[in-house]
Amino acid sequence: MNHTPVMLAEVLHHLAPRDGDTVLDATFGGGGYSAAILAASHCTVWAIDRDPDAIARGAALAARFPGRLQLVQGCFGDMVNLLAARDVTALDAIVLDLGVSSFQIDDAGRGFSFRADGPLDMRMAASGPSASDLVNALGESELADTLYQLGEERLSRRIAKAIVTARKEAPITTTVQLAAIIRRVVPADRSGIDPATRSFQALRIRVNDELGEIVRGLEAAARLLSPGGRLVVVSFHSLEDRLVKRFMQEAAGRAPAPSRHDPAGLTARGEAGFALLTRSAERPGEAEIQINPRARSARLRALARLPLRRFEAAP
Ligand SMILES: C[S@@+](CC[C@H](N)C(=O)[O-])C[C@H]1O[C@@H](n2cnc3c(N)ncnc32)[C@H](O)[C@@H]1O
After folding, report:
1. Considering only CA atoms, which residue is closest to atom 2 of ligand 1?
2. In angstroms, rounded to a whole number, what is the distance separating the alpha carbons of residues 275 and 294?
3. Whose CA is nearest to atom 20 of ligand 1?
4. For residues 44-67, average pLDDT
5. Residue of 198, 105, 111, 101 whose CA lies nearest to 150
6. pTM of the model
7. How far apart are CA 284 and CA 299, in angstroms?
């Protein structure tokens, strides 16, 4: 079991860590980004993850870079408080690599995957209600709304009805049980995507309040960046990327709604404190996707706090 870091070269390029910098890896995971940042310059890396297993695994990397990697368990939405409690109030670079790691997906016991039988859990941190709690307790219409809004599942009402019918017989407690209920009412289409995919995504996002975390995390990151500091975000589906795109465009003073006179929405509004480092989302190259199919849906966006460092210009 391992996690292959996604778009690592592009992430490093935009973070551009220098000797003496203080960098935040807000989603430590398998530590792939942290390891590369530590090797690229003599900087200090603060690494946050809400998953206690990820933090425990990080001890080996911390030992390889004595005094330069500090691991903190918690949610990146709380990064201002987590870091202030450790006397860190400004950062030169911040990276967020959203979603779950391969360690989490591949461990059947965590319940993220419908491909392996396990408890219907899906919590990144081992606290709060699990996916099983939600599936057995939510009302039918709230369940349908969740599947529709967070999974973009068109057949959400049909699935919610099937879940409510099934749970009257027995509580739904395993991944395989839920996947089977969904597959009975959602026909497989020609895309080859498993009919349970969208519903599992929706439940995972809700269980971990992933969209709320992104909003809180982006706002906190913008507050913590020093002048010239960079924020790099890698996202994996349209709900995430939409939030990141809107946040970065607004921070950079770009009009959110394109107009006839400014079709690309590139006119600065007032005094923007930030500049976009990526004009549109960057995508992984075909060679990376071949090696790491999980990179396929990745999109990278980056921004910097003004004024930029010397010799740099926004695109
Ligand atoms: C895609 S993985 C990161 C992989 C990492 N970049 C690497 O190269 O190994 C995402 C990690 O972020 C963590 N995570 C997700 N949402 C989080 C949040 N709101 N706060 C803290 N950690 C979070 C997950 O537990 C997971 O370990």
Report:
1. 101
2. 29
3. 75
4. 98
5. 198
6. 0.94
7. 7
Q: Ligand 1, residues 4, 14, 50: which to mutate, most atoms within 8 A of Cβ?
A: 50
Give dist(CA 67, CA 9) in Å, integer: 25
Could you give the percent of the chain with pLDDT greater than 70?
92
Question: From ligand 1's centre to the CA of 139, what distance in Å?
Answer: 30
Query: Position 222: which residue type?
Result: A
Q: H or E element: which one contains 32?
A: helix 32-40
- 263 pLDDT higher than 50: yes
Mention every residue, 6+ apart, whose C-beta is less than 8 A from residue 112. Answer: 100, 104, 105, 121, 122, 200, 204
Determine the average pLDDT of the residues in 85-94: 98
Give the chain's end-to-end CA distance (angstroms, integer). Answer: 39
Whether the predicted pLDDT of 111 surpasses 80: yes
Tell me the CA–centroid distance for residue 258 and ligand 1, in Å. Answer: 33
> Which residues are CB-contacts of 156 (< 8 A; sequence separation ≥ 6)?
143, 144, 145, 146, 147, 148
Q: Rounded distance, CA 88 to CA 267, Å?
A: 34
Asked whether the predicted pLDDT for residue 44 surpasses 90, the reply is yes
Please provide the average confidence, as pLDDT, over all residues in the chain: 93
User: Is there an atom of ligand 1 within 6 Å of 49 CB?
Assistant: yes
Whether the per-residue pLDDT at 270 is higher than 50: the answer is no
